Amino acid sequence: SAAKLRFDGRVAVVTGAGAGLGREYALLLASRGAKVVVNDLGGSHVGEGASTRAADVVVEEIRKMGGEAVADYNSVIDGAKVIATAIQAFGRVDILINNAGILRDRSIIKTSEQDWNLVHDVHLKGSFKCTQAAFEHMKKQNFGRIIMTSSNSGIYGNFGQANYSAAKMGLVGLANTVAIEGAKNNIYCNVIIPTAASRMTEGILPDMLFNELKPSLIAPVVVYLCHESCEDNGSYIESAAGWATKVHTVRGKGAVLRPALEEPVTLEYVQNVWSKVTDMSEATHLNAIAEASGSLLEVLENLKSNDKDAVEDSFSFGNR
Ligand code: NAI
């Protein structure tokens, strides 16, 4: 029987908390003692209109169960205003869950510039603006937990979601750098890749799946990532249906594209070693950009020192 994880004294901002996943995050955080800013613009799932109702209903739910919360009706695009609500109401911000989102699904040919821009503004720019505003406070207090919300649509692509996929993969890149910049100040940034029944996925997910994909099953994973005891930084966590896993990028072993340093890289050589370039049987995960550039230095060193074995090992192909 582990001690209950509490958030007493912590202030959490949850964007898009008027419905779906965000609402569950807000409710769970508040039930564990956090003071919560329930941000929601209250528009439609395609980003039209605005209303105070979405945020107000969740604030009321939290207050009824004895928790503390305030509503914020700004668009996340005005991130500084969202964070200002936390500072005005509670004097600090410890946790930011970037969750607000919309869809404008269209095939690539039919995606208008407006659909592209609005989806990017809400997901990517909105997360940037809120994070930038919160980061300042987190740095001063030497504590922060930030969540970016990505999607399998970004990781794998999904028909009709060019704008959304691009924005969701952009959030992975944003999280990678925020994680690095925050580390020394105990500001950790992680990515959630959820699949949940909400108005966003209604009619998209198969009915049988839909009923089992309750947002409440994901909330404990995201809220755990926001706890001071969680040491993860820069992780991508996929969760749904009461299951979760870490997701990694991997890199193959690769192949050298020329026999010696003085030699050019030819098209034919590339064609010859292509199966090695794309062979993932010895793929590994790299932890940092330095490891990527470090391995390039190694390739050059091997070519320079004409270390036959090392070069052979990295570029040899069948008929040599
Ligand atoms: P939802 O539509 O129920 O909730 C999103 C909330 O964000 C809504 O209440 C909406 O009013 C609010 N919102 C939209 N634009 C806003 C803005 N500019 N400023 C402030 N609030 C705004 O959808 P759901 O499913 O709960 O999605 C939450 C997040 O999870 C989104 O970022 C979504 O892209 C992501 N996601 C959801 C998946 C799912 O299976 N439900 C899959 C992958 C990612």
Automatic annotation (TrEMBL):
Top-level taxon of the source organism: Eukaryota
Assigned keywords, A-Z: Fatty acid metabolism, Isomerase, Lipid metabolism, Lyase, Oxidoreductase, Peroxisome
Transmembrane segments: none
GO molecular function, one term: 3-hydroxyacyl-CoA dehydratase activity
Subcellular location(s) of the protein: Peroxisome
Pathway recorded for this protein: Lipid metabolism; fatty acid beta-oxidation
Residue span(s) of domain Ketoreductase: 10-184
GO biological process annotation, one example: fatty acid beta-oxidation
Chief place of localization: other
GO cellular component terms, A-Z: peroxisome
Family to which this protein belongs: Belongs to the short-chain dehydrogenases/reductases (SDR) family.
Full protein name: Peroxisomal multifunctional enzyme type 2
Protein's organism: Drosophila busckii
Residues shown, of full length: 2 to 321 of 595
